[in-house]
From TrEMBL:
Record-linked InterPro entries: 4pyrrol_Mease, 4pyrrol_Methylase_sf, 4pyrrole_Mease_sub1, 4pyrrole_Mease_sub2, CobF
Upper taxonomic lineage: Bacteria, Pseudomonadati, Pseudomonadota, Betaproteobacteria, Burkholderiales
Pathway(s) annotated for this protein in UniProt: Cofactor biosynthesis; adenosylcobalamin biosynthesis
Official protein name in the record: Precorrin-6A synthase (Deacetylating)
SUPFAM superfamilies: Tetrapyrrole methylase
Sequence ranges assigned to domain Tetrapyrrole methylase in this UniProt record: 4-226
Pfam families recorded: TP_methylase
Keywords: Cobalamin biosynthesis, Methyltransferase, S-adenosyl-L-methionine, Transferase
Native source species: Comamonas serinivorans
Length: 264
């Protein structure tokens, strides 16, 4: 492999692909296509639909099953390291099998992976790629539209208040550390434990979205304390229906810090 292309595909809407992403996909010799189990087959179908829209030949696709992460014990960091190593091995094994299945075929020069959102934001693909022993120049990142951009656009809101910072965090961090001091706007990702249910800020608002950019997109917003049970009910219903859910939300409380310098 001469080059590994990590291509941000946004939230799964083919219209959100940049021209750079489209060009990179077309230039790839092989596209690795992960499958995350029967309950999440729809996720693979979204990626496959993008590739079919672009006219990518089926023989260029190398399908593989994602290894499961060990979730026993309290050594979360070690669990993630083991999982990343297993994924890297699966990539290498899949490429070897794909090459062997085509008699006389040379090893692919450019290998592509389609990454949800942007490869640089709360995604581990870059860290997994580092385990392959490639030189930095051999790994090319193609940026993608992030879920927080699509969330704010869908709700018609600005990401930040005037001259104020915002923070991107995870549900786990919100539960363990609470609402960070000095920050009034939070974007919360990777929240499988519904951390918003534990937030007690009485005047906070929430702007929630799931399956952003997809036909099944869901949106809900309003005062957090009033809306959160409805979000949890809708979230459970959608997860049961589709077998998976990808959601994100913005929390905003009244300004507790003085405004900074406003843009001209």
């Amino acid at each position: 492999m001469r080059e590994l292309l990590l291509i941000g595909i946004g939230t799964g809407n083919p219209r959100h692909l940049t021209q750079e992403a489209i060009d990179a996909i077309h230039h790839a010799d092989v596209v690795l296509l992960p499958h995350k189990g029967r309950g999440k087959s729809e996720l693979a179908q979204v990626r496959l639909g993008i590739l079919q829209t672009l006219g990518i030949a089926p023989e260029k696709l190398a399908h593989f099953d994602m290894p499961l992460r060990r979730q026993t014990g309290d050594d979360y960091g070690q669990q993630v390291q083991e999982w990343h190593a297993a994924i890297a091995r699966r990539w290498a094994d899949t490429l070897a099998a794909h090459t062997a299945a085509t008699p006389g075929a040379a090893a692919p020069h450019r290998v592509a992976l389609l990454v949800w959102g942007d490869p640089a934001l709360y995604d581990s693909t870059l860290r997994i790629a580092a385990l392959l022993g490639l030189a930095p120049a051999q790994v090319r990142v193609v940026p993608g539209i992030t879920a927080m951009q699509v969330l704010c656009s869908a709700h018609g809101i600005a990401l930040n208040d005037v001259g104020a910072p915002f923070q991107v965090t995870t549900g786990r961090q919100l539960v363990e550390g609470g609402w960070p001091a000095g920050v009034d706007t939070l974007i919360v990702m990777l929240d499988g434990q519904r951390a918003y249910e534990q937030v007690t800020e009485p005047e906070a608002d929430i702007f929630w979205g799931a399956y952003l950019g997809m036909p099944q997109q869901l949106l809900m917003s309003g005062p957090l304390q009033a809306v959160k049970p409805h979000i949890s009910a809708e979230r459970a219903r959608a997860r049961e229906q589709h077998g998976w859910i990808m959601d994100i939300y913005l929390l905003r409380r009244p300004r507790t810090t003085p405004p900074g310098d406003a843009a001209d």
